Amino acid sequence: MINNLYLVDAFTSRPFAGNPAAVCLLPAPADPAWMLAVAAEMKHSETAFLTPNPQGYGLRWFTPLKEVRLCGHATLASAHALWQTGLLDSSQPACFDTLSGRLTATRLGDWIEMDFPARPQKPASPPERLAEVLGASPLYVGSNGQTYLLELESEQVVRDLQPDLQRLLDLPVKAVIVTAPSTSPAYDFVSRFFAPAIGIPEDPVTGSAHCYLAPYWAGRLGKTEMSAYQASSRGGEVRMRLVGERVILGGQAVTVLAGELKTT
Q: Residue 217 phi/psi, 5° resolution?
């Protein structure tokens, strides 16, 4: 059997920037162990698997280590792949059934908007040694489960951060989002995302992280429409619109590779 496979750079308008995601188009649902093996082979932070169903497409996301419940950039990449291949007309929304419920993506010119659940966090005490492991003292710490959001002193501190990722694995932490106000008038805030516990040392641009960041900065800035830059080495731009308990995430995408994944 041959399955179509695409490599898409998400949250960017140019190749080799943003966040790369592999997108595998399957004729029918596949064995999860096989999908995990494919994701490990791809070595990207996320590989998306799409299967057609009567309501649109089933969508699952795998890191090289495990399946995850929500991924923004691989959803963006999946919608882009469907429109680029002509499997879905650009005037039609891409509808996905996922572990996080029904997700939709809409094409607006060169941009794609995705309707995601907001994930507000609450003030929390950080795990012991987290500041030491990160190498920065936070101004604020919030959490939603084992995902921690930390506001740091400045954009430069966020950009210069060099956390000890090996020691981070020893803490009861699934993921860490660090953020600060942007010094650029083009953006409201910047961020970075670290999740070695799920096989992602640093994610280049993280759509799902902005489901936490959008409600946080909406409260801090008193606005519901924002633009942000994720300041990894590749970098990428995310637009957000907070609508009740949902976050509309906006980004661009570009295909850099198309091929075939062969299975026995």
A: -75, -25
For 29-39, letters b (16+ CB in 10 Å) and e give ebeeeebbebb
Share of the chain above pLDDT 70, in %: 99
Cα-based torsion angle of the residue sequence 79, 85, 86, 89 in order, rounded to the nearest 10 degrees: 20
Are 134 and 187 found together in one domain?
yes
The verdict on whether 260 is a catalytic residue reads: no
Q: What is the Cα 222 distance to its own chain's centre?
A: 24
Q: For residue 14, give its domain range.
A: 2-115+250-262
Half-sphere exposure of residue 165, counting CA atoms within 13 Å on the CB side?
Answer: 14
- Report the pLDDT value the prediction gives residue 262, as an integer from 0 to 100: 82
Which neighbouring-strand residues pair with 227? 239
Q: Which of 41, 46, 113, 151 is catalytic?
A: 46
Calculate mean pLDDT across residues 14-21: 97
C-alpha distance from residue 49 to each of 21, 96, 217 (Å): 11, 11, 32
pTM: 0.93
pLDDT confidence bin for 183, thresholds 50/70/90 = very high
CATH number of the CATH domain containing 99: 3.10.310.10
Tell me: do 18 and 40 sit in the same domain: yes
Q: Which of helix, strand or coil describes residue 210?
A: helix
Q: Are residues 25 and 97 in the same domain?
A: yes
pLDDT at 169: 95
Residues 118/214, Cβ–Cβ less than 8 Å:
yes
Answer yes or no: do 87 and 150 share one domain.
Answer: no
pLDDT (mean) for 231-245: 97
